[in-house]
What does this fold into?
Amino acid sequence: MLRVCMGGSEASVSSCLLEQLGVAYGTVHSIPVSVVETLSSIELTRSKVGIPLGHAQDCPAAQGGGTELAGSFKIGCVTCVCDSRGRVLFTKRPMHFRAFPGNWVMPGGKVDPGETLRQAACRELHEEVGIDAREEQLELVCLWESCFPIRKSDGPLKSHVLALFFRLRLDLPFERIEVKVDSEEVDDFKWMVPSQVAEVLGIEDVSEGHKFALKFL
It folds into this structure.
């Protein structure tokens, strides 16, 4: 079992999460886990049936690569907003962002101190695209260990985050859903059919974690 604190991390979170859950580096890139949320932490345990947890094939945090960021490990929440016809809302990150500049992502951000996972997801959704949701509407579909840079060859690790992806189903077609973007955090937005995301937006411009999440929508 791996226990990750909401406001950062325990000293044990110093490398790849899958490795710390007993997965040998390079063998598999996703495993099912059970997820238990407490007031101050998330507990992850390997299980035969559970929520998929994935990471990049060449995980930069593997084999001790995350040691220098052990005290700054973060938890983030992402909301996959689906309209009544199955289209998914994507937003484009500004080029001045340090991590993943110009990438197409789904609305989300880090969990603030004192927030639950779903509270954080609802707050970020409202702040970034002006969509309001209730916590009970959010369904956890997968988890992704997000690292930046995304490859070891691109330099030292600058960001190490466990991202939890929630699905929000809306009973309206996207044409009737009002989106109000925060221009400081979002350059553009598009409603996309999941199977066409990589083709339309560009396979290199969609993060690996978001492509992983699309499999479970």
